[in-house]
Amino acid sequence: QLQLVESGGGLVQPGGSLRLSCAASGFSFHNYAMGWFRQAPGKEREGISCINSSGEDTNYAGSVKGRFAISRDNAENMVYLHMSNLKPEDTAVYYCAAPRPFFMGCDYDPHVYDYWGQGTQVTVSS
Fold first, then answer.
1. Average pLDDT, stretch 54-63?
2. pLDDT (tens digit per residue) in 77-116
3. What b/e string do you get for 44-69 counting C-beta neighbours within 10 Å, with b at 16 or more?
4. What three-state secondary structure class fits 119?
5. Which among 36, 30, 54, 23 is positioned nearest to 93, based on CA atoms?
6. What's the confidence (pLDDT) of residue 102?
7. How far is CA 116 from CA 44, 45, 67, 119, 126, in A?
8. I want to staple 60 with a disulfide (CB 3.0 to 4.6 A). Which of 33, 65, 82, 126 is the partner?
9. How many CB atoms lie within 10 A of CB 29?
């Protein structure tokens, strides 16, 4: 059974940093691209980053480019989102996701993704 479990969210002040983790199990992790998404209250789910199956290709939404970095460790079945220079508008529930089976490329369109974690809350506030 495929499972994705996010952790690392919390309350951080503007300008601060945070690292989110996503632990994957129940599937051949190294054969899947992975993505990070977020959803703020009253807004649609937003794709913010993706990484291909090998970790050699990444992409970012303009709202986070230069501040966030996605990475993965295929030996440990983990994907990470390093967030820096956080802003209040980054406040949202953050989700990691796996795409449809055997999709290995980098694409952060949420419709590509079939499997979702439960999310972790990130609140950026002074």
1. 97
2. 999 999 999 999 999 999 999 999 888 899 999 999 999 9
3. ebbbbbbbbbebeeebbbeebeeebb
4. coil
5. 36
6. 85
7. 15, 12, 23, 8, 30
8. 65
9. 22
